Each structure stands twice: as structure tokens, then as C-alpha cells.
Amino acid sequence: MTIEEQPAPPLIFDRSRTGRIACSLPACDVPELPLEGCIPPSLLRKAPAALPELYEVDVIRHYTALSRRNFGVDNGFYPLGSCTMKYNPKLHEDIARLPGIASLHPYQPESTVQGALELLHTLQSDLAAITGMDAVSLQPAAGAHGEWTGLRMIRAYHESRGEQRKQVLVPDSSHGTNPASASAAGYTAVTLKSDTRGLVDLDALRAAVGPDTAALMLTNPNTLGLFEEQIIEIADIVHQAGGLLYYDGANANAIMGITRPGDMGFDVVHLNLHKTMSTPHGGGGPGAGPVGVKRFLEPFLPKPLIASRPDGTYFYDYDRPLSIGRVKPYHGNFGILVRAYAYIRSYGAEGLRRVSECAVLNANYMRSRLSAAFEMPFPRICKHEFVLSGSRQKAYGVRTFDMAKRLLDFGFHPPTVYFPLIVEESMMIEPTETESKETLDRFIDTMLQIAWEAEHAPEKILQAPAGTAVSRLDETLAARRPILNCSCE
Ligand SMILES: *Cc1c(COP(=O)(O)O)cnc(C)c1O
Question: For residue 268, how far is its CA from the centre of ligand 1 (angstroms)?
């Protein structure tokens, strides 16, 4: 069976014809204000604006065609490793838009927002339970922001003990935000080499820790999708040197309901609610990166926290003298927190575990079938994602970049490519937990077909994408100097 390519929708630009009109407005029935006097004459338009003149259907088709050139979770499979599009229930969008939620003002008196405070308070404790932490702040607006907040707390903790530790250890497979957050928080990031199994090398760790180690930042499973089996030993090594353990929980969908960072020895964790818990991400936000800590770090959490009184009412607790302070105006991105609350409530504890089980099952199914044609640098059971190498195809002159472009011809968003950096020609694949077996199979069959083409018809791949509105771009230039004007068409 061969798989059909999916052509892009046709272009329609510049159909303006003088005199065409898309709507009719009733005659003005109030006195028209003389513009002179209201607006400085230098700002008044001398001639009517040159706007396109079109019929209503043409306008609608124009924008619909534009929207179809965008790829999103509602168009198709989106197996972007590490930052995958997890399941974003549409119902939660409706919940976040309920008037009683969407119209709240952050300056409203506490007594009028008790329901919202209860929601936040419950979410704080739900996230603490899911991560195995003792206290949670909902303020940070993104994963990187959570990392920075966590490291600031780690710094405040060491300083409270009269220590000025300067280094944060990060594995070479870590997400780029980890070393960046470490330096933004005033630390030097020290890279730890992974061993041949893709895991933290214990000897390298022992050699790197010392009196200058403030923390080790780790993702478990790591960005290769592999679980650090020696995590308890890793935690002991860092703790014995007086350092703390930071857990990057941006993608918690491999472990929810199965294990918890708190039980693995971590002291601080952030979650990306805009990945794991309902909010669609991409396009720059908004997001939420709550941080959770063990009891001994609780005094340093950002303030205010949402607290409850014995009479069952809720309040903003500002009385926190050791707090690192506020890290975000108001109380975090409330709409995102509402979606996460809805996600946890609608799944329940058993459901969250099932999410993780499906994420892991989907990833292993794909890994196992794809290993027929692709090099698997770490051929072991993975968690929610896995990394393959395009090295076999490279031998035929086809690179991972080319195969990613070829996937576009079949209506798939490509996986993450060339990350993590430690795998040659890497492709990092993460299937969303809610995808059907048919969708997974169609993607796998397409990948196998592309592997066949690499060997027998490489020009098809090298010329891809054929079916998109634009072909290969200078991606760096397109990001730095975007041309947003369509008159060129
Ligand atoms: C996405 C991601 C981050 C950063 O999160 P942002 O919200 O984009 O700042 C950090 N670590 C990992 C592992 C991630 O996947």
C-alpha cells in the first residue's frame, strides 16, 4: 500500500475589484461629529485608505485558506518530542471561558473571589500530591520561569545557611532552558556527560559534585525518553555533597500516578501545565510553570501563596518573611490554572495514571515498529518519547532534515530534529497519549516508506516538501526578518 500525499489548499490573494463590498451598514442615525477639532489636522487622512474590496465569501475563503496553511493539533498528528502536543480537551476551553471565571479582576477583594481562591488552593495541593512535594506556588508563567524560580529558592536556601555555592550541574541531554535558567539565576552551568546507555554517568557525577555544587537539574525520564534507574543513588551523591535536586517536570506525562519526583529524592520541581495538563502550547504562551518544594524549602516560595483559614475561607498569604518575593504580577496565568484544575478533576487519580500508561505504550509501539528501518541508539523500553538516528539514511545522502520535510507531504508535523545533540541525525518522537492505533500506524507506515525512498528514490525526499504553500525556507532568516506582507503574491 502506498500513502497518498496531501496537497496544500490553493492560493487566493488579491482579488480586490473596485466597488465590491462584503456588508451593508444602515444609514447613520446620529449626528456625525466633525473630525476637525477632534483629531489634529496632520493626522487626518487625505484620501480613503486603499483597502481591498471584496465580496463576503471571498474574504471568508481567503482567511480559511490561510488558516489551512497552519499546522496544529486539529489538523493532524504532531509527534514533536519533548514539547509534544499533549491532549487538550476542548471542554476545558469552555470552562476557562465561563463568565464567572473569565471576567474576574485580579484586584477584586478577597471576599468576592472565594471560589477562584478555592480552585487555586485545591490546585496547589493536587500538584503537590502528584509530584510528591509539600508545597506549591502557582505563580511562574512558563517552564523556564519555574526553573529560574526554583533555582532562586535553592540559592536563598544555601544563603540562609551561610553558603555561596556557585555551580549547577546539568546533563548533556538536558533541555536548553536548564543551563540558561542556571545562568540567569546567577550560577555557572556545568555539563555532565551521559554514559553509553544515555543515562547520567555516576562516575562523572561523583567527580563533578563538591562544596561548590548548588544543585543538579534533571529530567526523569530524560530527554532521550529513558528513565534514570539509578536516581536514588544520584540523589544520595548530590545530597551528600550538600547540593539539592531540581526536577524538570515539563513533561510529566510518563510518570503521573506511577511515580513522583518527591519519592525519587528531588527537592524542587516545576511542571508545565501548558504541556501536560490541558493547555495547548506554542506560539509563545500564555503558560504556567508552577513550582513545588519539600517542606524545608517552603519558607522561600514566592509570595503570596493561597492559604485557608480554619473557618474555610481563603486568603492571599503575604506573611512570608523568607520568601524570594513575587515572580509574576497577580497570581499566575489564571486561565491556564483553571484548565489544569479541570484536567485533574475530570481524569481523577486513576485517569492520570492511565494517561501515563497510554503515553508510554504509544511511544514503545512506535519505537518497536520503527526499529525495522531506523537506527535506535538506545534500544530499550522507553517512556513517553524516544530518539532514533537517521544515520542509516544519511549513507544514501538523505538527512534527517530532508525526511522531516518529506513528512509534510503526507500531512504530518515532523518530530523534533537534531535534539538531543548527543545523537547523530537525531529525530525525537513523542506520540500524544490520545492518538488512535490507526493514526500511529499511518505515521509509522509513512516513515517506513520514507526509509524505502531514501534507499531507492532519494530525489523525492530531497525535493520535499512538494505539497506545501512554500517549499524549503531559510529558517534562520525567516525568523529574524519575517516578511509579513502578502502583496508579493
Ligand atoms: C518545554 C520544556 C521546558 C521549557 O518550558 P517553557 O514553558 O517553554 O519555558 C523545559 N524543559 C523541558 C524538558 C521541556 O520540554
Answer: 15
